[in-house]
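so im writing up the methods section and need the EF-hand domain-containing protein record in one place, dumping it here so i stop losing it
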Amino acid sequence: MTDAVDWDEVDKRLPTAQVPKEKARRDELFAEMDSSGNHFITITEAQNGLPHLLERTDRKHHEAAAYLVPCKDLKLAVKAAFGVARKVAPCKGKTKKAKSNHDTCVDRREFHALLVAFRAYVELMVLFEQADQDGSQGMLNWKEVQKCIPLLEKWSIKAKEAKNKFPDDWTPSMSFQQFADWCISRRFGHLELELDENDAEESIKYEAGSGTFEMLQAFQEWDVDGSGTISADELADVLLSLDPTFTKEDALKLFAAADMNKDGAIDYAEFMRWVAK
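--- predicted struct ---
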């Protein structure tokens, strides 16, 4: 069952937040998967690397891979994710080799997109395998999907619409890729995939923490002059310390959003509301 999976643990294994700490982890993972050292990841390297991120820690050394999700093989999820991530970034260069790499590989800029897509397709693979009970070698029929309609409601799919996707009740006619594309198009239209760049707001809110104590501690640390408020300059200093590629303009935009009463300073109540927003 998809609800029996510890998705919080899955998310911890797949660093997708657009913040400096998780970007650094993505740098490490990309280097580990790039076995050829050419700054690109092939489908084979992705097939070898991505499933390892979701292996259970209690697996014995001699045992076949056992994952945090109830799937024996994650290669179809990797293949689907790779297919949508490999052209997120524009091509670098005009040579045949550059165009070939762009068409067949994922570069460092696209690695975030690969992880985001992999997470989505893994969830759909769990649902697909739960539905595929008749041993039809990875194809669903209507009767199998009908049993999963309550789970498909999360993906904005209703029974009548689903039934129309099949020629009859029992003919296996929907592959995993077709199933995944259908679910994603109904729920999202398409996956929102971005280049791997830190996001200023996400970075500073991540650094502030999510608990009351963490946020209080961050507020006190960032209020360098002890005035009981955070100034625009203090917020800018924090942001630039997280990632020097951020700009003063980035900080001013965040400050304007957090300074809700527009008095030129962020007090603790404003800070709490803004971070939690």
